[in-house]
Amino acid sequence: MRTFVAVPVNAALQNVLISQLATLQSQPWASDVDWTPEKNWHLTLKFLGELSAEQVEAIERSMRDWFAEGMSYFEAELIAIKGFPQAQSGPFIVATLEATLLLQALVREIEEQLRCFEIPKDRRAFRPHITLGKWKGKPDAFPELEISLEASWLRVDRLNLYESVQVEGRHQYKPLATHALETYD
To answer: Which chain positions lie within coiled-coil regions (predicted)?
Structure first.
């Protein structure tokens, strides 16, 4: 199974992104974008790769013990919708987030929890983003864009272990397990 750990996009932020994308999707170049369905929007914290069913079950069980000393939910600030270069697979349109110390600490803790499963740490720097679409047009025709997302926040209140499956040539993300962060409201 192809798996990853991510934060799902909350309803309030989803509405903000849908509103902003309506403008982008009316642009002449919009047909050159393979837009990500809203149900697939998430912030990836750790890509796990191909795992056996046994490994996935063990990780699901271990998630109950993550943050045994407690970790409260928090909100991560979004910065902008813009182009995101990917050397291997072409550019994407993403919503970028501030790489706060809390978000970075969360990623480090997840990597630490996964060490016993021999899942290596990421070599690349953590660049928090939510993928909104993949550019399918000519590389030199990729639009220059940056739309500010002032006062937009992702509520980081749970972590999902997802399986990525291909259905009719499109990725679908199926939640396998959820770990809720503590709330003090």
So the answer is: none
